[in-house]
Design a protein that fits this description.
65% of the residues lie in helices and 9% in strands. The protein is mostly helical.
Length: 114
């Protein structure tokens, strides 16, 4: 049997998924987009940065980056010194998407934290 807190948490997650689905992204994709957007300009984020800032494992981040790249929400730039390393940049479509989704999720946060 679920506790009232568990029921509220599950409802909050369900409503998050509804909002994100409307924009064609998953929770993991949103978390990665947020991490990339939060990086300082002089410190272009790489996969390690994203793993650290999202708490997601390396494989999930890699798969999520592939998906976001296919959707053209981010771009990957191969490293000059170490060509195995990529930095990640938020594309204009990715920024536009974040600008639309973030306020809706913030409003949902307000509803559930009241």
């Amino acid at each position: 049997m679920r506790t009232p807190i568990e029921a509220i948490f599950e409802d909050w997650q369900r409503q998050q998924r509804v909002i994100l689905k409307k924009y064609g992204i998953t929770r993991n994709q949103f978390k990665v987009l947020q991490a990339v957007a939060s990086a300082k300009r002089q410190h272009a984020p790489n996969q390690q940065f994203i793993v650290k800032h999202t708490g997601m494992n390396k494989m999930v981040v890699s798969q999520t980056l592939d998906s976001l790249n296919k959707k053209m929400l981010i771009t990957r730039i191969r490293g000059v010194i170490d060509t195995r390393q990529y930095t990640v940049r938020l594309g204009i479509p990715g920024r536009t998407l974040l600008d639309k989704v973030a306020p809706e999720l913030a409003e949902l946060e307000k509803l559930f934290s009241a």
